[in-house]
């Protein structure tokens, strides 16, 4: 009997400050992903995108993955894991080789990528991505497939994303302790960019702002790749805590108020709309529920947003996102679900702002919002056939520099031995 072809399964695991979610999909021959199962649990043990309690993170990861496995009816062995914590850094390494007017062969491209080794300095960080982006032939930029073309000089831009080693190792250990292998740890801006930005946006220039629970990542794309990245230790959880502190209520009640009544913009009715407020005492000792106006709630929200958008504007300026190049901003992440936030950000930043949602057919309605952009992007990254130099070896093993053999393998060995 002929054996059935192996199923091309992709598992995504997004470990965030507010939720931990999992997605299992099957990649078809045409590259389309069929969603088989999803799982989600409230995040426990994660603070500012970093592991703060290993046992709690491990158990929550196991619960979310097991839920997705039950729905899909299969067991998975490994996952592409998203990392959104601070310490991410993005650089572009540009290298060039002479080929003397000949046709570009595979060995020329291998030689070019090998030449990139010395131009990449991780500076003590762990390389998550080293992606050859656009090639340049004799000054002609933006060539995607140089193979077979003639040129005197061949150049390439290698997009490098690195992170502090310790937080990556902690997350890796948590996932493996939950009896799940790690196919790769993926920077969340890379995943989110795949899921909610069009190819044209990434080419022309766009800023992606991921408003997460504990971290806001501000990234800039141009020429088809990520060229700048800055992490801000602030997110939707801070707004919730501000509400809880200002009105003396529990965090869960503050979150409910933010989601159902909160807004980034004001209206004339805000002073008349009343919200029942449950105090921390919860009715004990004769304490009665009080009421506040919607205007009071929005005032607290806007105070935090003013601080956050000011930091976002500073980050964009620092990365050179200005002029004709810097006209489009995309907000995504759970924080972007706040009512009116796109209009508010557009007024503060002075740029066109839209909400980015995952462009992935078949996503359940409950997982189709901007809070799940990173999760969808992780699945797309896992199914992608784009070359990522770090995927050719296991970054969590010690690799000795090979003698002879394929020059690409020697390049990867060099990447690994630098840290």
Uncertain stretches: 392-419
The side-by-side strand order for the widest beta sheet comes to 3-2-1-6-11
Q: What is the strand content?
A: 25-35%
Class inferred from helices and paired strands: alpha+beta
Helix content: 25-40%
Give a short synopsis of this structure.
With 419 residues, this protein is of the alpha+beta class. It is built from eleven helices and 18 strands.
Observed structural traits:
single chain; five-stranded mixed β-sheet; 28% strand; 18 strands; disordered C terminus; 11 helices; 32% helix; globular; 419 residues; alpha+beta
Describe the structure.
Helix content is 32%, strand content 28%. It has helices spanning 54-72, 106-115, 165-177, 188-196, 199-204, 236-247, 251-261, 294-318, 341-349, 373-383, 407-417, and strands at residues 9-15, 19-27, 33-42, 46-47, 50-51, 78-83, 89-98, 126-137, 140-143, 153-163, 181-187, 206-211, 216-222, 225-232, 274-277, 290-293, 328-332, 352-355. A hairpin with a 2-residue loop joins β13 (216-222) and β14 (225-232). The longest helix has 25 residues, at 294-318. The termini are far apart. Residues 392-419 have low confidence and may be disordered.
């Amino acid at each position: 009997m002929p054996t059935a072809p192996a199923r091309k399964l992709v598992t995504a695991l997004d470990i965030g400050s507010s939720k931990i979610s999992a997605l299992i999909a099957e990649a078809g021959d045409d590259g389309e992903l069929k969603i088989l199962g999803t799982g989600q649990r409230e995040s426990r043990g994660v603070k500012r995108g970093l592991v703060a309690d290993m046992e709690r993170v491990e158990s929550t990861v196991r619960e979310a993955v097991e839920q997705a496995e039950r729905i899909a009816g299969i067991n998975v062995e490994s996952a592409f894991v998203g990392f959104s914590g601070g310490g991410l850094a993005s650089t572009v390494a540009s290298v060039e080789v002479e080929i003397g007017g000949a046709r570009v062969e595979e060995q020329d491209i291998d030689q070019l990528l090998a030449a990139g080794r010395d131009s990449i300095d991780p500076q003590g960080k762990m390389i998550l991505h080293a992606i050859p982006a656009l090639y340049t032939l004799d000054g002609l930029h933006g060539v995607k497939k140089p193979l077979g073309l003639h040129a005197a000089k061949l150049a390439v831009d290698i997009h490098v994303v690195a992170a502090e080693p310790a937080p990556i190792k902690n997350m890796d250990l948590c996932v493996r302790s939950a009896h799940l292998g790690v196919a790769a740890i993926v920077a969340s801006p890379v995943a989110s960019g795949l899921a909610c930005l069009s190819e044209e946006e990434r080419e022309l220039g766009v800023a992606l702002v991921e408003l997460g629970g504990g971290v806001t990542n501000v990234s800039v794309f141009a020429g088809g790749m990520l060229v700048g990245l800055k992490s801000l230790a602030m997110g939707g959880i801070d707004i919730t805590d501000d509400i809880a502190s200002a009105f003396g209520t529990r965090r869960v009640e503050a979150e409910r108020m933010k989601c159902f009544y909160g807004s980034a913009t004001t209206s004339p009715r805000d002073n008349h709309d009343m919200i029942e407020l449950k105090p921390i005492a919860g009715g004990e000792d004769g304490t009665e529920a009080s009421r506040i106006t919607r205007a009071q709630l929005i005032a607290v929200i806007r105070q935090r947003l003013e601080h956050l958008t000011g930091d976002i504007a500073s980050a964009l300026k620092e990365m050179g996102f200005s002029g004709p190049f810097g006209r489009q901003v995309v907000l995504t992440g759970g924080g972007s679900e706040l009512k009116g936030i796109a209009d508010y950000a557009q007024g503060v930043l002075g740029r066109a702002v839209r909400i980015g949602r995952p462009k992935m057919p078949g996503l359940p309605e409950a997982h189709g919002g901007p809070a799940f952009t990173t999760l969808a992007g992780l699945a797309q990254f896992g199914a992608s056939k784009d070359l990522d130099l770090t995927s050719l070896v296991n970054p969590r093993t010690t690799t000795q520099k090979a003698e002879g053999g394929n020059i690409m393998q020697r390049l990867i060995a060099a990447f690994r031995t630098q840290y």
